[in-house]
Amino acid sequence: MSDTASEPRRILLIVSGGIAAYKVLETIRHLRRRGVAVRCVLTAGGAQFVTPLSLHALSEDKVYQDLFSLTDESEMGHIELSRQADLVVVAPASADILAKMTAGLCDDLATTLLLATDKPVLVAPAMNVRMWEHAATQENLATLIRRGISVIGPEEGPMACGEYGYGRLVEPDRLAAAILRRLGHDTDGTDTKQSVLAGRSALVTSGPTHEPIDPVRYIANRSSGRQGHAIAEALAALGARVTLVSGPTRLPDPAGVTTVHIESAEEMLSACRSALPVDVAVCAAAVADWKVAARTGEKIKKEEGAAPPTLALAENPDILKTLGQPGPGRPQLVVGFAAETGDVVARGTAKRARKGCDWILGNDVSEGTGTFGGAENSVHFITEAGAEAWPTGSKRAVADELARRIAAHLGAAGERGAAE
Ligand code: C5P
Questions:
Q1: d(Cα 114, Cα 14) in Å, to the nearest integer?
Q2: Residue 242 lies inside a defined structural domain of this protein
Q3: Does the predicted model carry a pTM greater than 0.85?
Q4: Which residues have C-beta atoms less than 6 Å from ligand 1?
Q5: Which of 140, 170, 192 is the last residue of a domain?
Q6: Is-contact 168 21, C-beta < 8 A?
Q7: Which of 106, 161, 272, 357 is catalytic?
Q8: Residue 70, domain extent
Q9: At what angle are helices 109-116 and 95-103 packed, to 10 degrees?
Q10: Residue 172 located in a structural domain
Q11: Domain DNA/pantothenate metabolism flavoprotein C-terminal, which positions (predicted)?
Q12: Which one of 11, 101, 108, 250 has the fewest beta carbons within 10 angstroms of its own beta carbon?
């Protein structure tokens, strides 16, 4: 897809304080070459590193600095300024501005615009490695991502302060490419508007398993597969290459997804193994905990007057636990579900540790919730950082939210892994 007049092409670029601010000058040049209109806002900290004149010369537009500027307000109010662009970019985003964004503080023009805007926001953090690694910064970032803010970088490398680590602002070409992608531009020959997971691979398990007793009978459960299928669809919609390993369901195979049909847990595990390596694995299947220990090839006969047969059960392989095992083939991100009837968060947290997965989506399947087989789901999103209750929504809405989180996680991990 090439640029067209219908593509949104206007950004508000907030330049906060940091030695890396010089990189935004080159970024503006990249963007201007692609016809993107860039309107700059310079914080007091940012002005210590780049001048309004440089920003003005490269953006060919007025540079805004003051919240209480009579001239600026009479030309254009700050609310209007915050909403005129198609995308708001903060680069470099200092630890200070990230903290203010998280807290909703607005004591200058930049933070006021960030609180007032109704447009998508992309932040490109840059700071000292210790400041970046500090729990406060990491928690602030997690909150911002949860609120829908996109993050690019920082990168690893030597810092201006002499230390080494993560904290460098991404290079101008990568920052410009990320901005163009979010504006819906073609940056590498493909339509990347919906492709935040392009180049990534995902494995999703879904549905129940059927554990054979004999050639005609089996043990099953009530899973409909709706949540797992919706997750496969949502990941594919973001551009991921998805393999869906599904037990027997009534659902059609999702479009744009490779679906592998299996029946038993053993078959599911073997199909999952064949799909590796992947970047992310989401185990949403309701895998039977037990299989029949000695499955017969013959139909078990009901003999007149004989006692009913006794079924000896054996434990099934735990697919989630297997995929979560540390090792070179482990997916970068392993996600499981915990269908519980008691304290969902406590049980889900314990399950996360027991299964060795990164995230657990805990849901209440008590009688009356309608979760099993129903269209809606209420989820507690459990990670290393704690538990977060998501509002009740359709299984597709839950899937979209999860896909977005996965994209944010893999995106951030990808940037962090990219040393110069
Ligand atoms: O242990 P429990 O069945 O409650 O764990 C639920 C999670 O583990 C789900 O993500 C499910 O897909 C996964 N699981 C699995 N293999 C099993 C049992 C559960 O992958 N044998």
A1: 9
A2: yes
A3: no
A4: 205, 265, 283-285, 287, 316, 318-320, 336-338
A5: 192
A6: no
A7: 161
A8: 8-192
A9: 40
A10: yes
A11: 197-408
A12: 250
